[in-house]
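Suppose a colleague, Dr. K., hands you the sequence of a protein chain of 290 amino acids and asks what its three-dimensional shape might be. Before reaching for any lab equipment, you can write down a predicted structure in token form. Begin with the sequence itself:
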Amino acid sequence: MFSNYLIGLREGLEASLVVCILIAYLVKTGRRDALKPIWAGIGVAVAIALGFGCALEFGSQELTFKAQEALGGSLSILAVVLVTWMVFWMRRTARHLKSELHGKLDAALRMGTGALVATAFLAVGREGLETALFVWASVHAASDGTPRPLVGVALGLATAVLLGWLFYKGALRINLAKFFTWTGGMLVVVAAGVLAYGVHDLQEADLLPGLTNLAFDISNTVDPSSWYGTLLKGVFNFQPDPTVLQVTVWLLYLVPALALFLAPVGFASGKGKVKEPDEQGSRPSKAPQT
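The predicted structure, expressed as tokens, is then:
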């Protein structure tokens, strides 16, 4: 449940900040007439993300067992690729997000209503589709037959909406650089578990070898149905009897991904130095300014 809460919080907060920036800019520039197209674009993005999630869930139920495992494994790996790209992208570009959105919004205002709808849709839609895919993969990996993963996601999204509203009202101060660093690092750990589970799905679909070649089996020591087994499963997608290939892939992803993610932000300059973002650009204390 915690891992799904984290997914909903992280992805939802990114979308909330985007919405906050767009709306605050229009209000402060006296363009309240453009708010309806913006909300329309956001509504379309949310509807498509929900539809995508439903299509994944209900569409996969009509498949054979091996086809379900092949689809689940493939989409889990795709979800890990997307969420990894997302956390690295946000780590690098968070300080420039507001100015980038302002530029796109200015161009859309000059082009008309359709461009405004498209701008809001594209800004929020990417987050929505990524969230739907990663949530589906994470819930599929949990597969404990309880609604807890979905409850975790819902609570995370609700928290993100509340935080976004507080940001807009200027009632909340938080170091966004540190927030996205900590949550991004935890998401990398969650993604490693989803990746290992995706590999297991592909092994059960006979697309990868080594299903019976276990790295270890501590099922008698760690009961998956116990509270601590449930906690390990929910946070890390822990499996008491992983295959050698699962453990290998988990390590090959987690170690370098965390090392790169926790390295200094930014690209090397001409002299090979890395530039860190300033704190001012990532710690708004008021509603976004123009």
